[in-house]
Amino acid sequence: MPVTAKDILYEDNHLIAINKRAGDIVQVDETGDEPLDEKVKKYIVATYDKPGGAFLGVVHRLDRPVSGVILFAKTSKSLERMNAIFKNREVKKTYWAVVRNKPVNPSGTLVHYLVKNPKTNVVTPHLKEVAGSQRAELSYRLIGELGGYYLIEVDPLTGRSHQIRVQLSTLGCPIVGDNKYGYPRGSRKGSICLHARRLQFLHPVKKEPVNIFAKLPLDGFWERFEGF
Q1: Burial tier of 19 (Cβ tally within 10 Å: 0-12, 13-18, 19+)
Q2: Which end of the chain has fewer CB atoms surrounding its CB within 10 Å, N or C?
Q3: In this predicted model, what pLDDT tens digit does every residue of 185-226 receive, in sequence order?
């Protein structure tokens, strides 16, 4: 599906944020499916009549089955500055996840050392540093329950591949639909119940606080948690 005005969460001359649909890939991969960055470029070209094309820089990524806030840069200067903001951890990322198992502790901090297998695209967590591992840290808290499902808010300090998915799984709380990391079955829609809910940072050019918020997907399940 193309990107339209209803998908835009924030836009100015420097940045554009999209409410990513689960199933969209952010950048081109071996599947050959049209990536989200190309869809956003097409939106900018069509909306602002740019026959010569448009610059668009990928600031960060979300896994294909994950929905929610994703940010792109519209200029090389803003891309460079946003890259520095993310590298220096001057951005606050908030995710919502739905799990079937209630965590033993309603809140906590998780630290693991993650190793990704590039052949299988599976991440393995370790409690101590091992060869080739990356340190991953997040905090979480249980914020709601609905029909036997539990809603967890997650604030990752680091941005490692599959981090939230694998770290919640270590609690015995695999994310609904995420059969790669322990949920009994996958989603027929190719999605998991992990949503990038909010992104907060200081604007790289205007130096003003930016708070970007993404509503939950309307898929017959997720939107029931919107009131929490």
Answers
A1: buried
A2: N
A3: 877 677 999 999 999 999 999 999 999 999 999 988 999 999
User: What local confidence, expressed as pLDDT, does residue 117 receive?
Assistant: 94
* Concatenated DSSP letters of 131-190: TT-EEEEEEEEEEEEETTEEEEEEEESS--TTHHHHHHHHTT-PBTT-GGGT-SS--TTS
pTM: 0.95
For 167, half-sphere exposure in the C-beta direction (CA atoms, 13 angstrom radius) is 29
Closest CA to 216 of 129, 134, 146: 146
Active-site option among 7, 24, 37, 63: 63
pLDDT at residue 30, as a whole number: 72
Residue 63 is a catalytic residue:
yes
Tokens of 52: 């010569």
Q: Return the minimum-mean-pLDDT range out of 66-70, 142-146, 152-156, 217-221.
A: 217-221
pLDDT number for residue 47:
92
Element (H, E) at 210: strand 209-213
Write the CA distances from 111 to 46, 107, 188, 190, integer angstroms: 44, 14, 32, 28
DSSP conformation class of 52: T
Q: What is the Cα–Cα distance from 46 to 39, expressed in whole angstroms?
A: 11
Q: State the DSSP H helix or E strand holding residue 2, giving kind and residue range, or none if neither.
A: none
Closest listed residue to residue 214, CA positions, set 78, 85, 66, 88: 66
